[in-house]
Amino acid sequence: MTTLAPNEGAASDGVLDELIDPMAARLSRAVEPLQVAAILESEGLNDRIARDRYGHPDVFSLAEAAYSRMTVRRRDLPPPPPPGLVPQRARPLAQILHGLLYGLPAVLLPAASGLVGTRWLMPGLVLTTGIGWVLGSAAAQLAYTLVGRGHLRSAGRVLRTGLVLGVGAAMLTATVISMVRGGPVSLVALCVMQMAFQIASGILLFYRCEGRLAAMMLPAVAAGLAYVAVGDSRAGLLTVILGAICIAAIVTAAVLLTLAEGQDDPASEPPLRTLVRAHLRGLLPAFLYSTLCALFLLQAEARYVLDRSDLAIAGAGLVLGMGVLEYRAHLFEDRARATLREVFYPAQFISSGRRLVAGGLLACVAALAALSAAPLAFLYATQALSAESAVMAAAHVTVGGAYFLTFLLANQGKVAHLCVAQGLALAVHLGARLLLPGAESALADVLLFLCAGLLFLIILLVLMVTGLRDVRRYR
């Protein structure tokens, strides 16, 4: 084999980065190329590997190139913050309450159904919830991207646009239902209220205004609980009116927040159309994944909203626990970054990372199971508990565990993998329902949903555990 000169066919910066990143914690302490060479040899690199894979005649030449590359990278990066000042992404109380905050309008449903009727209210809300889920997720994804690049005003405009599109879509959807199926006109107003709250509350949470959201919605929640105790039709009307006022205040606060952000920075930003076009390719997988998530959950629940309210209630634990999933995902990121500063070998990080994944997953499943016990206890007290509702609750706990892993994988940029996994789980549930005999029964259907959720969880767990080998994604 021909020996290469030191600069002939030498590895590019990208190839050197792939060599350096898994050993960055150890290599960063090297003060001369000889120390780098010793570390490379301890990892099993010899002269032959240096020639064949990296284009250097021996390990010492490769070590000099790696040391030079690390020197350039240190010069380009800002100095690391002191250990005590490393920003923490996890905010325990605020993030854990996110699920509860999203579920606050549910207190108004008894009063609203008394005015509109469950026959019309629930299908309308199911459709608008799915649309709001997709639009809100897409707008938030693009807004986070723009904020990360310093375009605060454009991020606010994206969020406002998502709010307008969501309200328009809810109005159109509810109008079509009312015209085609002969539903009441009040259905349009209630669906618009629900969509406005869903997206506007997401904007407040985007700007970390959890306390403001809770305070503005508190009067409506109190009125909804009072209506459940009283049950008078006039009280129901007053409850809905008060809820509309509270939601209008939340929408106003959300719009004002989006208008205020970035106004203190005089620097001009590129046109929003240009920014959106630049990030559109990266946004499409996230949009597809949000759509698949909405379809997976709503297709499993929508068929039961009219005649099997126990199955709809059984899945409430997942909604209430979404904040727990978010908090545990941020906590995992914080602990993974801390672990990187403590270990010396990639194998050590992988071992610690597996324990972090297992601990986070078990904590999420335990929290969701505890939250699901409340609706099941309510069903038991009202003599509506059934085998189907118990299985439906277990399925939502399983899917919730999978969604904890989706947060982790999304933070690693593996949205395409998530689309494939979610699409496969959706296809398994729908396909089995169509092909298997007797799958149309409620018990068989929720069992299939549980199996699809378990498949989804297993696929994501494999992706997550194998992804721990790519240490640089956790820096």
UniProtKB/TrEMBL annotation:
This protein's UniProt keywords: Membrane, Transmembrane, Transmembrane helix
Keyword Metal-binding applies: no
Domain of life: Bacteria
Transmembrane segment boundaries: 99-118, 124-146, 158-180, 186-206, 213-230, 236-259, 280-299, 311-327, 356-378, 390-410, 415-436, 442-465
Protein name per its UniProtKB record: Uncharacterized protein
Species, as recorded: Nonomuraea glycinis
